[in-house]
Amino acid sequence: MGEMSGKYQKGIKIALWVALINGEAAAAPLPGEAIFLEKCAMCHLPGGQGAPPAFPPLAGSDWLKGDRPRNIRVLCEGLEGRIVVNGTEYHNVMPAQVLDDTQVAAVLTYVTNAWGNQAAPYTTAEVKQARAGSRFPTFAELEKASAYPPLPPAPAGWTLREVVQLPALCTRLAGGNGGPVYVLSEHGIIYRLDQGAGVPWILPADYADLSIGSLNTLGMTLGPDGRLWVVSNQKTSADVAVETNVVTIWRSGPIQGTDAPKLKPWFRTRYPWGVGPYNHGVSHLAFGPDGMLYVSSGSRTDGGEDGAVPRISKEGETDITACLWRMDPAAATPKIEVVARGIRNAYGFAWTPEGQLFTVSNGPDADAPEEMDAIVTGNHYGFPYQFSDWPLTPKPYPHTPEPPAGLTFSQPVLNLGPSAGGGKTGGLATFDAHSSPAGMMWCGDDYPEPLRGGFLVTRFGNLLATPQDAGFDLLRVALRSPRESGRWQAGVSTILAPLGRPIDVLANGQGKVLILEYTRPTDFKSRVGWLPGRILELAPAAK
Q1: Domains in the chain: how many in total?
Q2: Would 289 be classed as within a structural domain?
Q3: Which of 86, 31, 34 is nearest to 55 (CA)?
Q4: What confidence tens digit (pLDDT) does each residue in 389-433 have?
Q5: SS3 (DSSP) at 126
Q6: In a domain, 66, yes or no
Q7: Buried b (16+ CB within 10 A) or exposed e, 408-445
Q8: Which region holds residue 77: left if phi is over 0, alpha if psi is between -120 and 50, else beta?
Q9: Dist. CA 200–CA 53, nearest whole Å
Q10: 69 domain-assigned
Q11: Is 60 exceeded by the pLDDT of residue 18?
Q12: 57-86 per-position pLDDT tens digit
């Protein structure tokens, strides 16, 4: 607001607004200005001038003069993506504000009549109608979605704390191990935690051509040379016969201090966009013990189906989807080497100290277990011909293709339990169906029990209705060598549950682990809408 000394002079105007909002005379004014100062001024500043290029102005805003229902929905469901205010582009995130209909009307009435702005007062009836068309059709639904769940109990000898609540839905963590921690949003914003989670460090407009299509960013890593690497997917229909996924790997120069580096395109390729919702895209990337860059490219189908959508290719998987890539980070003209095929969607992968690479993959809509695979260069891991270690007949789907003659499949790790579906006779390969294993990391000798000497795997949780929710947890996977049984096996135990759709995990030095929660609900069955999550820290208790 500018000067706080003007607060009382504006009281008569606010009282009039409240009377108009509620359709009756008001005994006491609703503090629309106070709501603005509490909820909005941090980003848009007390005088409404904003902070370009991150936060747009409200004072003299041409955007606010436009669509009134849109203005309401922004408060009720949040806003992300490109907007233009007074001729300047903004690419940031505004989370939903937990305000009831009367509060939304009051603060919008204040904002659209402060700093020289002029507009008719907003009414509670107007807000209620516009909110009904938002992601959270009632205030009660928004209020329920906004609640962060209580922290689950930590294992004996450990502590769990909330590090930060995030302003956007985020997909990856990078850095750590005592150094700066970088957080990637699903639409290309990068935050640096030591500079405040609410302040973007790098915006998508700083590096990407958004005219191609909006960014979907699922992978980020900090290289051994101090460079930041990010992978993006962009759906485009421009100048192509079928919808296309443009994949770009971005690379920065070595990071110097706290200054944001410039991300530049290092590699770009494209393939036909996926059938229905199954364009999993290119996601995780990480450096292997050999110094090479490994990249996971997910499937563009659920299980090899053609699909029936105009302008969507019916060619099934391509040469560079449903597989794992290896690339030379020093190459001036990088090329893809396919390490292994038949991997449906490995959102996470990591190595043991001996250099053995393991992936965790999301399975199909058919009720096959989710897989953990020990990767051997040149091997095939089944997709779309075989799911988990199911027999080839009967086929899981009528459209399941016949495998090429002579092709053999490597089998997933057997989960011997007690958690994540294991413990049954013969084991499970590998986790409960639809539990969506996501980020993973190895815990070395610097980690106390029960984490030492195993993988940590986050499970995002089911996205389909199932008899019982699966996932929403952090698992420890203790491997057992195939020397005796002829097949990799693992003991799997639950470390933390329930969590708000955990999507990534990062080592942070001194035995500490950072856990990225994508959102807040800890189950599927409640059908609570999604708002941005938070970062948790699991750490050894002080002795």
Answers
A1: 1
A2: no
A3: 86
A4: 999 999 999 999 999 999 999 999 999 999 999 988 888 999 999
A5: helix
A6: yes
A7: ebbbbbbbbbebbbbeeeebbbbbbbbbbbbbbbbbee
A8: alpha
A9: 10
A10: yes
A11: no
A12: 999 999 999 899 999 999 999 888 788 999
